[in-house]
Amino acid sequence: MPVQPKKTRRRGLWGWPRTRWLLGIPLGGFLAFLVGAATMVGSSVAIEATSTDAFCATACHSHEEFIYPEWKESVHYSNPSGMRAGCADCHIPKQYPDKLIVKTTAGIRDGYHEFVLRSISTRERFEARRGEMAERVWERMRANDSQACRNCHHVDSFSGQSARAERMHQRMETTDNTCIDCHEGVAHLHPADAARKYATND
């Protein structure tokens, strides 16, 4: 009687590995997935919690004393349409990874100047740096074609604007100019206006 060849069981994809170290591959992948998911959820929750107007207004002394009151007097806070543009609407990009990058770098920089260097902790120190801080924001807006403005405002949808404003907006679409080139100081005092205001108060 001929000897029958021994049947070998084919190992499927999900078969038990012959060596235990191979278990580390799926377990490591699953662990990496959990860590990645937790990091994404955690960062998203942290970003949202630290992007509210209430947080921005009270987290730093300079924001509560100098920046927040200016915003509350601006057209971005109160206007005939009842629409309100908050801190995050103008200062934090909506898309990832830009949102995470700006939020992280701005938080570190502002915190360092506020709590370590104390370079913006008094009215005098804040006003001395207002122009530099404003220019940094304006340059970022010029670099992204004032995307924060365009998230809410659409040039082809303006109604009731003056003939001059309409011409300027039409010209903007065919030149390198962008919203911030004409609308500096919309939500916060322009450095030149602030200099005149606080020089007068002194």
From TrEMBL:
Its main location: membrane. It is a single-pass membrane protein. Binds 4 heme groups per subunit. Heme 3 binds at C149, C152, H153. The keyword NADP does not apply. Its cofactor is heme. Heme 1 binds at C56, C60, D110. It is found in: Cell membrane. InterPro entries: Cytochrome_c-type_ET, Multihaem_cyt_sf, NapC/NirT/NrfH, NapC/NirT_cyt_c_N, NapC/NirT_cytc_sf. Keywords: Cell membrane, Electron transport, Heme, Iron, Membrane, Metal-binding, Transmembrane, Transmembrane helix, Transport. The chain crosses the membrane at residues 21-41. GO terms for cellular component: plasma membrane. Residues 30-191 form the NapC/NirT cytochrome c N-terminal domain. Binds 4 heme groups per subunit. One of its GO terms (biological process) is denitrification pathway. Gene3D superfamilies: Di-heme elbow motif domain. GO terms for molecular function: electron transfer activity; heme binding; metal ion binding. A menaquinol binds at K103, D110. Heme 2 binds at C87, C90, H91, H188. Heme 4 binds at C179, C182, H183. Belongs to the NapC/NirT/NrfH family. This is Cytochrome c-type protein. It comes from Thioalkalivibrio nitratireducens (strain DSM 14787 / UNIQEM 213 / ALEN2).
